[in-house]
Design brief:
The chain is α+β, with helices and mostly antiparallel strands and 230 residues long. It is built from 8 helices and 2 strands. 38% of the residues lie in helices and 18% in strands. A hairpin with a 5-residue loop joins strand 1 and strand 2. Pfam families: Terminase_2.
């Protein structure tokens, strides 16, 4: 560069536009955070909470359009990846937790004598599956304790202390449904098979139709070789 010549800025011409580097407006950024704030995700609800004014079908259309914008899709992906890294959420860990819920043994909630174990005595799988541990105790009233308290004027004050006795104790446990965990594993592993659509080779009706093709129906008109007679 010669003396006195102004430096030229580097040209961006020909460089591909990176959606992740595009800046969002404050309202768009709030939409992204509101969208990820609840599950299942609801774009229309996030659109309203972000402060957009449209309602009804217009809001649903606008929310869907926002989700398709490359910058917003990149921001959602970036936040998800950042949260996953922060909390060490991996596919393997999620699958491991689902496996605990799907394959735990309910018998391991009990001791050999039939009594329930305390939560601190449960194994990892049973502790993960446990959702409720309710204890109910039954009491009955007993004759109150009576105490005669001396008074300054020489008399006595009769005091009664109510007394109850525990006569029963019921412990109830609640745990996760195995089917829900198994369904989640199937989805995560990609084992879920979509139902065959009508008219596809996998649909039994299609096979029946194909077998019937080329077979003359009893109701089909048949040309007669016999000539008519008067």
């Amino acid at each position: 560069m010669t003396q006195g010549q102004k430096p030229r800025k580097a040209s961006r011409k020909g460089r591909p536009k990176n959606a992740a580097t595009q800046r969002l407006s404050m309202q768009q950024e709030r939409f992204v955070h509101e969208y990820l704030a609840e599950t299942p995700h609801n774009a229309t609800a996030a659109y309203a909470r972000a402060g957009y004014q449209a309602t009804g079908q217009a809001a649903r259309t606008a929310a869907a359009r926002l989700l398709k914008q490359p910058a917003i899709k990149a921001a959602i992906a970036e936040l998800r990846a950042r949260d996953a890294a922060k909390f060490e959420v991996t596919r393997e860990r999620v699958l491991e937790e689902y496996a605990k819920l799907a394959f735990f043994d309910p018998r391991k909630f009990y001791n050999e004598d039939g009594t329930l174990k305390l939560p601190t005595e449960l194994g990892d799988a049973e502790a993960a599956a446990l959702t409720g541990y309710d204890v109910e105790e039954e009491f009955i009233g007993d004759d109150p304790d009576v105490e005669m308290e001396d008074q300054a004027h020489g008399g006595k004050l009769k005091r009664q202390h109510a007394k109850t006795l525990a006569v029963g104790r019921t412990v109830k446990i609640k745990y996760q449904r195995k089917k829900d965990a198994l369904d989640s594993i199937v989805n995560l592993m990609g084992w879920k098979k979509e139902p065959a659509q009508l008219g596809t080779p996998d649909n039994p009706i299609t096979m029946v139709v194909k077998e019937m093709q080329g077979v003359r129906s009893a109701l089909s008109p048949v040309a007669s070789d016999e000539g008519g007679s008067e």
